[in-house]
């Protein structure tokens, strides 16, 4: 008899519940059950026979794959629900028609381009540490930033005992009270740009992601979403085939 079993986190991502990483977190939190039993990492399931639930709700495979971009406003957390009752990006995409989840993240006080999908495999490829994905941010900081500080940021900053990879940083507007910088990075450490700026004594006033792998936010209004077009999907699909040894997210 053919063995149809696959890893639980792969099944969850295929069903559009979450990326594999997030699925693993849900399993570790004890929120996933297989046939009524609390699941563990490493469990396998038969998609055709086993009953899988997340927080009491059964999940089934979603045939239609959806890929959208959202202009995330400040004040929203990049989760589908929040135990502290904070505003979530899920509230902004309730009219998509299917359940979609974020690809990567933007912290609560950041804004801009956020990709969302119900395709777990796509999300996993785009956020996997071996994927080389350029992300562009417009960052406004307090005060006038000196050239040597820009060079230091671009060269790499020690965070958590590991230096950030070299990145592109340049000034597009410099005034006495504030400076606007453009960062292009291909890592995705937690709050990376904010922590890099803090490490060199810069206070971030505003942080906005404007582009991911050639896909641009453009004039999409805050709080609104739209489907990705064919050209944008080609950009994102092609970039996931380029491998790099360093971390990305």
In summary, what is this structure?
The protein is built from six helices and 17 strands.
Key descriptive features of the protein:
29% strand; nine-stranded mixed β-sheet; four-stranded antiparallel β-sheet; 249 residues; alpha+beta; disordered C terminus; 6 helices; elongated
Give an overview of the whole structure.
The protein is an alpha+beta fold and about 250 residues long. Helices cover about 20% and strands about 30% of the residues. The protein contains 6 helices and 17 strands. Strands 7, 8, 9, 10, 13, 14, 15, 16 and 17 form a 9-stranded mixed beta sheet that branches. It has a 4-stranded antiparallel beta sheet with strand order 3-2-5-6. Strands 1-4 form a two-stranded antiparallel ribbon. A hairpin with a 2-residue loop joins strand 11 and strand 12. Mean pLDDT is about 90; it is low at about 240-249.
Secondary-structure blueprint:
Blueprint: E1 6-7, H1 8-14, H2 20-28, E2 32-34, E3 37-38, E4 44-45, E5 52-54, E6 57-58, E7 67-72, E8 101-103, E9 111-117, H3 120-127, E10 135-142, H4 147-155, E11 158-159, E12 162-163, E13 168-174, E14 178-185, H5 192-199, E15 204-212, E16 215-216, E17 225-227, H6 230-239
Parallel strand pairs: 9-15
Antiparallel strand pairs: 1-4, 2-3, 2-5, 5-6, 7-9, 7-17, 8-9, 10-14, 10-15, 11-12, 13-14, 15-16
Helix pairs in contact: 1-2
Give the amount of beta strand, in percent.
25-35%
The rounded distance between the terminal residues' Cα atoms is: 39 Å
Low-pLDDT residue spans: 242-249
Gross morphology: elongated
Report the helical percentage: 10-25%
* Helix-strand sequence: EHHEEEEEEEEHEHEEEEHEEEH
Taking the sheet with the most strands, its summary is: 9 strands, mixed
Radius of gyration equals: 20 Å
Q: In DSSP terms, counting alpha (H) and pi (I) runs of 4 or more, how many helices?
A: 6
Structural class: alpha+beta
Beta-strand segment tally: 17
Overall pLDDT metric: 88
